[in-house]
């Protein structure tokens, strides 16, 4: 397939977008330099709607931006059940999880694990998050770069450097406040770009929206009765819905990049509003991104055909560079960059929070001024590691190696969510039981992954095996049970007295 020239007008639009993101980081540099509270939590001064937009932009990567339309193009809207679960679990988050993170005034999610189980669980949880997200940064840079360069003449090194390098700089400068406000801008751009693509696609089809609907009905491109059958050719919505609940519970309760946002608003009420904002945006995403795939299905059946042997992972970039006017194409490629950078900047700031708070401050003491610089250099190092891995993948095309790394660290992802649930919903879970349960769950998840079960079924097994193994094994180590007052749902309204790590004194939380 012949690659398409990107064009001067598109480059101008793209460069202007990248410079605007850099300007956001520069603008918030002074505020973020005050202390680590400002650098990691924006001093709790973020409006609820902006925090919600940031959560949304963080969880929607460029991979999602391209793979969701591809799924709708090839199959149907069944995976939209995953978006519905985000909205469905918000009451659970608000009632059971957020109060504990806010009560502890936790910068990282894993501070709760220390209070509930001990420092060893905090260390393991934070380390696994850090390793996984360095790998995630690499994949989030690599896959969109690969897709865009499949269909255009843009040098992949330039894409990776522009997306990753500038993202490192504005995260380094602006801290969490810069990350959140850039997320807001990026969220608006990525949604606006997607809507524009859908509108332009419909307008290019003879018969417009009516033709799209007719094609969708004739080819079962939305939802059909087959989607509710188990073991059929179509994806089963009940399995997708159930598995997505536990995938999202992991992201919203045990993953630092999202949990960190819970502390960026002034009150718990504002945090709850931010979650509802994110939930509404997750619902809005369904018709936009799945609709994009359905529109492209009609477009390539009526207007023109895809090249023979075309790789559909590049479906969206191909439509952008081959069918849209100059300038508009640059804007929508910028939307893909925005989806990519919002995920990367959140990962980098969250990795920095884990390394600074869970490792440096926890074991070597706190010095706010010096720790801000420590945090900034951690952003640089994590970003460079992620970029180097991405460039290695680009030069060697050995994505399977990196996917293996992500799979190994990811085996502990959903099980860690099970550990948080154990801490909050039970009184008898203890450190030895949780550790043994975590490893038994990871082993179970590994073997389940080797079966023909869908990833959503694997997520369900991972969560429940972690919870059940952790609880049952804890019953064998009752002498390790701790005082859980204020740390479980049974005493959720009680005051919690936190033991300082570096003294023998206590303080009320």
Distance between the termini: 62 Å
Major sheet strand order = 1-2
What is the CATH fold-level name of the largest domain? Sodium/glucose cotransporter
Question: What composes the largest sheet?
Answer: 2 strands, antiparallel
Under CATH, the homologous superfamily of the largest domain reads Sodium/glucose cotransporter
Tally of separate helices = 20
List segments where confidence is low: pLDDT < 50 over at least 5 consecutive residues: 502-509
Proportion of residues in β-strands: under 5%
Describe the structure.
With 509 residues, this protein is mainly alpha-helical. The protein folds into 2 domains: 17-396, Sodium/glucose cotransporter (Up-down Bundle); 411-509, no CATH class. Helices cover 73% and strands 1% of the residues. The chain contains 20 helices and 2 strands. It has helices at residues 8-27, 29-32, 36-41, 48-59, 62-74, 81-103, 110-116, 119-151, 156-204, 208-218, 237-253, 256-259, 268-302, 315-323, 328-364, 368-396, 399-410, 413-425, 431-449, 455-474; strands at residues 497-499, 506-508. The chain has a two-stranded antiparallel sheet. A hairpin with a 6-residue loop joins strand 1 (497-499) and strand 2 (506-508). It is globular. The chain crosses the membrane at residues 6-28, 48-67, 79-98, 119-142, 154-173, 185-205, 230-249, 279-300, 315-340, 374-395, 401-425, 432-448, 454-477. It is found in: Cell membrane. Belongs to the sodium:solute symporter (SSF) (TC 2.A.21) family. This is Sodium:solute symporter. InterPro entries: Na/Glc_symporter_sf, Na/solute_symporter, Sodium:Solute_Symporter_SSF.
